[in-house]
Amino acid sequence: DIQMTQSPASLSTSVGDRVTITCRASQSIGSSLNWYQQKPGKAPNLLIYAASSLQSGVPSRFSGSGSGTDFALTISSLQPEDFATYYCQQSYSSPFTFGPGTKVDIK
Amino acid sequence: QVQLVESGGGVVQPGGSLRLSCAASGFTFSSYGMHWVRQAPGKGLEWVAFVRYDGSNKYYADSGKGRFTISRDNSKNTLYLQMDSLRAEDTAVYYCAKDSVGRGYTYGATFDYWGPGTLVTVSS
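The joint structure predicted for all components is written out below.
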């Protein structure tokens, strides 16, 4: 199975800050990497697919990069509605594993 | 618009069974693969199972192999998860999720739409 790790596990930040979350796969997965945002009590929401493609309706301040084993999600200027938990997920092979999540909260 | 609504959750004793349903609307259900993903209280997301658009391929996480069965009824636009021999560690919110790719692919495993989830509690 492909293991996914994320860093940091949590970060405290302010509105307007630039935020980068990293995700690493235990083996090469090409560009088969997705990013989701989840708010408390809600279902996850797809932000980025295929490592760098922005899902329809997602603000352009979100971007994704990387390939192979190392990936990043960047929020260029954090907005109040962006405080949430972010998960990466590999779509390369079954089982389709998620990272442990990164909680972004207010400093 | 795409809508997914899970049902069937509840409290069940260890060793018991439960069948979850997911009613789909707003898209051609029979053209897309579907998944179940779960989240234990306060924990992260765990993919559970996948079924191809026509039901011909099914994949399972090790945690549910031999105990969980995913199925679909394309005439009813409904996805199912039969869960048997339930354990305390199966306690979670169970989400159904639509795969982003349709016919012509085995899977895309990108979850572009999710239901609100249904809570399953395994406890005596």
